């Protein structure tokens, strides 16, 4: 059997499926059927079982993990928590609901208290999930753990899930949801893991089923033959090509930069020929933090990053919180439609002290290192927001300050934006999402998430033209830059550098070298006048 989806990158893998259990729904607030005493006895047994599991995992892990897991186990037996749960059961709640409400009350209190207590909120939430899973008799939600490599199948992966993923065990990712620019896709490119998103029927794959994941064709083949499996292993032994700086056939330099989410990824990016960093996603450093990181913490992380790129350009993006990258310390009110909410610069402007501290830490890291630091803001709507960010960052000592073109309104007024911005970097993932009104996390609208769409290309051309007119650089840092053919078109539209997951650098480098600037411009001209994404791709890839 073969399932079809949208492939990310060109990799292939073979291995057994391991499914990520579905998230647990909130326990319903319904009348309790059993008596209070037996309901409580069930919860008490589940709490004890969870405490024992945590202790056991801790003693197997050893080191710091043992202390942390032992502390979590004690939390599960905390008498105040247990009394609170019992009181809620006595007032008619089911055991599951009582656990959910009691833990909710504790986490609200601990978050408000801040400091060490706030940092333990995630542990408490984890305990509640474990206890509720026990009471329901279902597998624990969250990242599966395995001692042998597997193909992870999930509805989708949130950045917080992926932070916990043991990537040494994951051969490939297959999701039923998500689009080509979802964070699952970004993670896959970043880590060179073959991935296929928006695969209808993926969740019907049973644990243990052996599959071939072929990202180039977007197919998942179940129960492959031995010959098919051998072919996958042979393809994995590919021939290395020489690494040079990015350039077109006519010698025009197009620096090829890396998208990174942690200083730890710098070494492998450099090995793959990254000439610097075109997008450092700072929010990935703090996804699990309940409280805002201090200036000192941040300075240390940014210094670690910059120190790896002496004399090189490093573009750091200030925190892009909101939508599918929630940060506890920048969260606002509940939003029904968070992609259109208080995201990116909007959230930072509403919490200006967080922005001030981040820019201060960046300026200090810049002073302590020899990299060429550029700083930019995400989700910027217009020239007024650009002026605000550029002025604020300059006041705090940053020298090269720009904005991302992710919201169509910014691209439409790009000429005005360049009056204050030193550079613009196009985030094609969000620009596509907002131009085509298609949520990038939704598999059902994944086909709209296509940066080849002429509407997206025309907006990029507006930015490219404005950049050329003002003599300022225009980078591309969305996933579109990782598509070799599209990368050529983007250069034709005015991009002066391209930033991507390091694994994509080799293919993009090779494709750029086949075209002159005039040829890239001619391809771009054809693509922007096409009637659809498919037509743009077809006319621009005609040889
Ligand atoms: C983008 O939107 O293209 C981008 C690079 O930012 P992110 O994917 O982190 O939203
Ligand atoms: Mg974005």
Structure in words:
- It is a single chain.
- The protein has 543 residues and is of the alpha/beta class.
- The protein has 22 helices and 16 strands.
- It has three domains: 2-21 and 142-236, 3-Layer(bba) Sandwich (Glucose Oxidase, domain 1), CATH 3.50.30.10; 36-136, Enzyme I, Chain A, domain 2 (Orthogonal Bundle); 256-540, Phosphoenolpyruvate-binding domains (TIM Barrel).
- The strands form two sheets. Strands 1-8-7-3-4-5-6-2 form an eight-stranded mixed sheet, with helices on one face. The chain has an eight-stranded parallel barrel with strand order 9-10-11-12-13-14-15-16.
- The two termini are 35 Å apart.
- Bound molecules: phosphoenolpyruvate and magnesium ion.
- Magnesium ion binds at residues 378, 406, 427, 429-430.
What binds here, in terms of ligands, is: phosphoenolpyruvate, magnesium ion
- By CATH, the topology of the largest domain is TIM Barrel
- Biggest sheet layout: 8 strands, mixed
Strand content: 5-15%
CATH architectural category of the largest domain: Alpha-Beta Barrel
**Helix amount, in percent?**
40-55%
How many separate helices?
22
The termini sit apart by: 35 Å
Q: Residue ranges: pLDDT <50 for 5 or more in a row?
A: none
What features would you highlight for this structure?
543 residues; alpha/beta; Glucose Oxidase, domain 1; TIM Barrel; 3 domains; eight-stranded parallel beta barrel; globular; binds phosphoenolpyruvate; binds magnesium ion
């Amino acid at each position: 059997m073969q399932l079809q989806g949208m492939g990310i990158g060109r990799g292939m893998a073979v291995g057994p499926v391991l499914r990520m259990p579905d998230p647990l729904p909130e326990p319903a607030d319904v009348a309790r059927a059993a008596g209070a005493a037996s309901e409580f006895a069930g919860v008490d047994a589940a709490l004890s079982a969870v405490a024992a599991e945590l202790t056991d995992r801790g003693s197997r892990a050893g080191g710091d993990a043992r202390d942390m897991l032992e502390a979590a186990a004690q939390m599960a037996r905390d008498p105040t928590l247990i009394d609170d749960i019992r009181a809620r059961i006595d007032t008619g709640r089911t055991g599951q609901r009582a656990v959910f409400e009691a833990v909710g009350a504790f986490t609200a209190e601990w978050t408000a208290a801040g400091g060490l207590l706030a940092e333990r909120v995630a542990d408490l939430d984890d305990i509640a999930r474990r206890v509720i899973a026990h009471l329901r008799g279902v597998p624990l939600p969250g990242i599966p753990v395995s001692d042998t490599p597997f193909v992870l199948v999930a509805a989708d992966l949130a950045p917080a899930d992926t932070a916990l993923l043991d990537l040494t065990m994951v051969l490939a990712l297959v999701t039923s949801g998500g689009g080509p620019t979802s964070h699952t896709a970004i993670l896959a490119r970043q880590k060179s893991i073959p991935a296929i998103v928006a695969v209808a029927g993926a969740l019907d794959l049973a644990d243990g089923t052996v599959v071939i994941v072929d990202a180039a064709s977007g197919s998942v083949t179940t129960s492959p033959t031995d010959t098919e499996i051998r072919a996958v292993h042979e393809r994995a032994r590919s021939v290395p090509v020489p690494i040079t700086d990015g350039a077109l056939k006519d010698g025009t330099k197009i620096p090829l930069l890396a998208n990174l989410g942690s200083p730890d990824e710098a070494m492998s990016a450099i090995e793959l020929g990254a000439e610097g960093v075109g997008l450092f996603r700072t929010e990935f450093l703090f996804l699990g933090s309940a409280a805002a990181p201090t200036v000192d913490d941040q300075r240390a992380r940014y210094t670690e990053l910059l120190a790896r790129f002496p004399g090189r350009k490093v573009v750091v993006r200030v925190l892009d919180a909101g939508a599918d990258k929630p940060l506890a310390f920048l969260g606002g009110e509940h939003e029904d439609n968070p992609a259109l909410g208080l995201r990116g610069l909007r959230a930072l402007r509403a919490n200006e002290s967080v922005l001030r501290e981040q820019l201060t830490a960046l300026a200090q890291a810049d002073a302590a290192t020899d990299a060429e630091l550029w700083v930019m803001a995400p989700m910027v709507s217009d020239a007024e927001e650009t002026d605000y960010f550029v002025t604020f960052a300059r006041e705090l000592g940053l020298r090269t300050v720009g904005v991302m073109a992710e919201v169509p309104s910014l691209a439409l007024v790009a000429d005005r934006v360049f009056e204050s911005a030193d550079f613009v970097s196009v985030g094609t993932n969000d620009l596509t999402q907002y131009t085509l009104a298609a949520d990038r996390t939704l598999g059902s609208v994944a086909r709209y998430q296509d940066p080849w769409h002429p509407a997206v290309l025309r907006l990029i051309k507006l930015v490219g033209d404005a950049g050329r007119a003002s003599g300022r650089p225009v980078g591309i840092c969305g996933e579109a830059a990782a598509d070799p053919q599209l990368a050529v078109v983007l250069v034709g539209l005015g991009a002066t550098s391209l930033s991507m997951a390091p694994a994509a650098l080799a293919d993009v480098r090779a494709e750029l070298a086949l075209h002159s600037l005039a040829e890239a411009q001619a391809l771009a001209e054809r693509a922007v006048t096409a009637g659809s994404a498919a037509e743009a791709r077809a006319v621009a890839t005609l040889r």
